[in-house]
Backbone:
């Protein structure tokens, strides 16, 4: 035991990326390079970038699916697609955008940015982070593998039974969805655990809980929400798979099963999930907007509390997806009122953003345009949600294009716009280069105008009685011209997305060099180089306020954060563990080195699900054994990883 | 299908509330848009100075926005919640006891209808076309034989999901004589898009006449062609379709008694003309792919005969 270090008083030193200590750090933290390094890395920045790129790939695939559907619907009696093709397209479009784009893209931002925002050298569980990504990737591939075979899920993303049961849907389609979602749930769950523990333990000394950026609040809230929400849907899909494969009767009406049980379980998950895919995006805006308004966010505390209370309320509103199912009026009225209450925390955020712009001195960058445009889209998506929350009105609106319009304002307006703005904002940090601003501003206007032309008329289509999920419609119902406008507008929006992608590729090669802090931002990620070194910070920063890099100009008295001088921690991969609320230095955490264990475990888990799908019990058994072995290898105690008291 | 205007007391309160909340929503959007534009443009000179300087020296400024904005929002919101609850309560029950109960039995992808009555002799079955007397509330008991559907006649009122294993109850009332289109609103499989129905509101006398008409057995085929058609029907169609007064008693497909009194075929898909009828019987799968009715059951002379027979079902 004598060779294991259990106590050390960490050295406080002044260091930069040019210091000698930084070379030592670089040697410790740098990956192996090459394919081996690529497959075994546990660096949060690498994993974050992979999340972002994979999620964008899925966004584009889901967008192409939508483009084909819009071609079908552009005119009455369209016959480009058969009804079954259309069903698979709208299902995969929803599944892709909601599960494979919207959440993972935010995980990408958070994975990349959390340690940088918090002043840490990695996430709390770097290997779990890698596992989370690999399982997400494999679950996405799993869900898409059946698409070329014409066996993709085809009952909509909320997959109502009994149409999803074997009697009505005998093919592999629904099994792929059921197992794919259970697999994806593993990724979401381990990712959520990692964020929560990282927040509790890995903040820079001095970054008490009331000093963390709003993005951290958003992702933390989403992660806690997911921990409670995902089990409901994993359970529901597992029960459905059991019904389909082994004749259990959870949802079998003939044997006393309940179709509404599915809806309750699905939406108990589904609605919190909606908040999980918007709250971190709102956090991106709450952190980005102040930089371009040249002032701190108005109302940090109310906005942080609004974030948390939105999620808490979000667990009590799921029945608003089920107002027309014949539940008693007293019951649905409760859920109606609970849903409307969410307007209050939302309005706190909206007025905070407007006040920040109003009292600030806005700099009209591309990122700022996306954030400011988002505020209006947030409000439009919000008020249409408020209308559907009113039971009597919803009895007309539900299941129509009004809801389609609402959910796209929420998902595109509150997720895609902040995400694209966030990329413009942090691209220099990710790559060391700025994105092209001229093209960026054009991109904003094309996306903003295209989006509103494409999606606002959907509200009117809904009011004109067009139901969701119809693959065609007759002439004479008054839906033709609006549908044509929707199709054209959505194509314009798609051109905007394409311009953004072109901008990314061009700027990667030719973008202007950024420097550490091109926007004069206030948070810790801007204190390190662009892109950051493998160890993030030459010394662990010490934080004394919410805006460590603006302290000198905010006249806040004697707050002195320090980014150049702090704990050195250069004996291998180390970072500082701090206490949960006040972020007092507590322990030196030894961080794991690169390893194949997460990849191997992820692959084995994917194979296990393939075995279950194909009823290949040998594959399933073999994969289970490999999973176990990979877990043992992963968890094998290493003395060098024991934490060190300070 | 547009429900900007509705035509009965099950719909009026929804429409009023919908317009009310819609207008409030639009006002909110406009107010926020104006504030946002104001925030972006006011005192443009502020931006002329050095970008790296911070505009506000402390964090606290601007809180008034949140207090006032959220305060006003909360007041409006609570008023809307009250209005919503009152409206919800007002449409739970019809203003007077329903004059009539119709059972709606939804299947992939059509609507069976059973007009019930205390007297068994006044009970009858039809499909895809609901007739009601104007100005009277009608109770609908909705049930499904297979998957979830949703019963929706937008110009008369809100939806009621049709869920297998349970019977949901709703009511509608038409205050104006006319034809009201409806359509299934929950995705129910391949031909979800082609699962429409019509509700025809008639004067009480007209409704009574229709009802009496429906209660009669269909006349026995008179002409030779029609008799031949009936034979073909019995051989090829009767396993699924029923025609009261004949031996055809299938329950898988729509009841075809008095078929010729209906305006449409195949759950609102086609106008009911002899040509469409022949086309539908010959080739249903090209018109409604996935429907349970197979192609080419009858063709050639048999097809003509069956159409001749069906044309007699007045």
Residues:
């Amino acid at each position: 035991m004598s060779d294991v270090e259990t106590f050390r008083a960490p050295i406080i030193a002044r260091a930069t990326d040019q210091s000698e200590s930084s070379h030592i750090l670089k040697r410790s933290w740098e990956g192996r390079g090459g394919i081996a390094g690529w497959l075994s890395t546990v660096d949060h920045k690498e994993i974050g970038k992979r999340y972002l790129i994979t999620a964008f790939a899925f966004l584009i695939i889901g967008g192409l699916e939508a483009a084909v559907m819009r071609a079908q619907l552009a005119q009455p009696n369209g016959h480009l697609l058969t009804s079954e093709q259309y069903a698979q397209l709208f299902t995969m479009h929803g599944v892709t955008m909601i599960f494979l784009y919207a959440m993972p893209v935010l995980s990408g931002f958070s994975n990349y940015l959390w340690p940088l925002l918090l002043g840490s050298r990695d996430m709390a569980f770097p290997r779990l982070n890698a596992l989370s990504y690999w399982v997400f990737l494999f679950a996405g591939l799993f869900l898409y593998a059946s698409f070329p075979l014409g066996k993709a899920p085809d009952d909509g993303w909320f997959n109502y039974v009994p149409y999803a049961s074997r009697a009505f849907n005998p093919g592999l389609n629904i099994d792929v969805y059921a197992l794919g979602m259970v697999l994806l749930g593993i990724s979401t769950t381990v990712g959520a655990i990692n964020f929560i523990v990282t927040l509790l333990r890995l903040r820079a000394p001095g970054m008490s809980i009331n000093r963390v950026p709003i993005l951290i609040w958003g992702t933390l809230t989403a992660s806690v929400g997911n921990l409670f929400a995902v089990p409901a849907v994993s359970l529901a899909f597992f029960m459905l798979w059991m019904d389909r494969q082994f004749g259990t009767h959870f949802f079998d009406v003939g044997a006393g099963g309940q179709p509404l049980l599915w809806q309750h379980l699905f939406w108990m998950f589904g609605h919190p999930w909606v908040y999980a895919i918007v709250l971190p995006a709102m956090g991106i805006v709450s952190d980005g907007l102040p930089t371009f308004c040249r002032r701190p966010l108005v109302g940090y505390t109310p906005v942080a509390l609004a974030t948390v209370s939105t999620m808490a309320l979000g667990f009590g509103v799921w029945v608003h997806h089920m107002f027309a199912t014949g539940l008693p009026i007293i019951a649905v009225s409760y859920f109606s009122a609970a849903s409307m209450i969410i307007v209050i925390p939302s309005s706190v955020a909206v007025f905070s953003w407007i006040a920040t712009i109003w009292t600030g001195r806005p700099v009209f960058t591309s990122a700022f345009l996306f954030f400011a445009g988002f505020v209006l889209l947030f409000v439009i998506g919000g008020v249409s949600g408020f209308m559907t929350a009113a039971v009597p009105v919803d009895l007309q609106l539900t299941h129509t294009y009004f809801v389609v319009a609402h959910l796209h304002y929420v998902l595109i307006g509150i997720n895609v716009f902040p995400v694209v703005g966030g990329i413009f904002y942090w691209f220099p940090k990710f790559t060391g280069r700025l994105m092209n601003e001229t093209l960026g501003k054009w991109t904003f206007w094309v996306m903003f105008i295209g989006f509103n032309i494409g999606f606002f008329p959907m509200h009117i289509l809904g009011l004109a009685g067009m139901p969701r999920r119809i693959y065609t419609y007759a002439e004479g119902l008054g839906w033709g011209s609006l549908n044509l406008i929707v199709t054209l507008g959505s194509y314009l929006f798609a051109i905007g997305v394409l311009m953004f992608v072109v901008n990314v590729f061009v700027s990667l090669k030719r973008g202007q060099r950024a420097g550490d802090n091109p926007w004069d931002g206030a948070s810790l990620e801007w204190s390190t180089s662009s892109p950051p070194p493998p160890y993030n910070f030459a010394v662990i920063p010490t934080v004394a306020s919410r805006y460590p890099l603006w302290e000198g100009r905010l006249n806040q008295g004697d707050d002195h954060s320090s980014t150049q001088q702090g704990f050195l921690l250069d004996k291998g991969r180390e970072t500082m563990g701090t206490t949960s609320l006040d972020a007092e230095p507590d322990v030196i955490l030894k961080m794991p080195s690169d390893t194949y264990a997460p990849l191997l475990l992820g692959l084995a888990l994917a194979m296990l699900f393939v075995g279950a799908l194909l009823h290949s019990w040998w594959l399933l058994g073999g994969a289970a054994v490999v999973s176990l072995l990979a877990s043992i290898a992963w968890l094998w105690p290493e003395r060098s990883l024991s934490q060190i008291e300070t | 299908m547009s429900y900007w205007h509705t035509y009965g007391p099950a719909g009026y309160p929804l429409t009023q509330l919908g317009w009310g909340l819609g207008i409030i929503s639009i006002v909110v959007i406009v107010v926020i848009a104006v504030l946002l534009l104001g925030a972006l443009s006011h005192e443009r000179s502020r931006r002329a100075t050095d970008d790296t300087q911070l505009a506000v020296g402390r964090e606290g400024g601007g809180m008034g926005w949140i207090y006032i904005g959220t305060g006003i929002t909360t007041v409006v919101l609570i008023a809307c919640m009250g209005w919503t609850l009152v409206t919800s309560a007002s449409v739970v029950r019809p203003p007077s006891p329903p004059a009539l109960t119709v059972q709606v039995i939804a299947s992939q992808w059509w609507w069976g209808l059973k007009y019930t009555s205390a007297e068994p002799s006044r009970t009858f079955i039809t499909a895809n076309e609901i007739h009601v007397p104007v100005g009277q509330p009608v109770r609908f008991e909705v049930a499904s034989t297979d998957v979830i559907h949703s019963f929706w006649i937008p110009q008369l009122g809100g939806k009621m999901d049709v869920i297998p294993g349970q019977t949901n109850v709703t009511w509608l009332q038409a205050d104006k004589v006319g034809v009201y289109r409806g359509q299934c609103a929950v995705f129910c499989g391949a031909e979800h898009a082609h699962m429409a129905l019509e509700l025809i509101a008639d004067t009480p006398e007209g409704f009574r006449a229709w009802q009496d008409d429906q209660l009669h057995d269909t006349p026995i085929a008179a002409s030779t062609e029609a008799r031949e058609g009936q034979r073909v029907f019995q051989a090829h169609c009767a396993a699924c379709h029923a025609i009261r007064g004949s031996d055809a008693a299938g329950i898988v497909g729509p009841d075809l008694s008095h078929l010729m009194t209906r305006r449409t075929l195949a759950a609102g898909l086609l106008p009911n003309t002899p040509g469409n009828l022949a086309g539908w019987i010959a080739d249903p799968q090209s018109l409604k792919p996935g429907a349970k009715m197979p192609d080419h059951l009858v063709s050639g002379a048999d097809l003509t005969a069956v159409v001749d027979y069906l044309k007699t079902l007045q």
Summary: Chain A touches chain B through 91 residues (CB under 8 Å). The domain at 36-519+601-609 of chain A is CATH 1.20.210.10 (Cytochrome C Oxidase; Chain A).
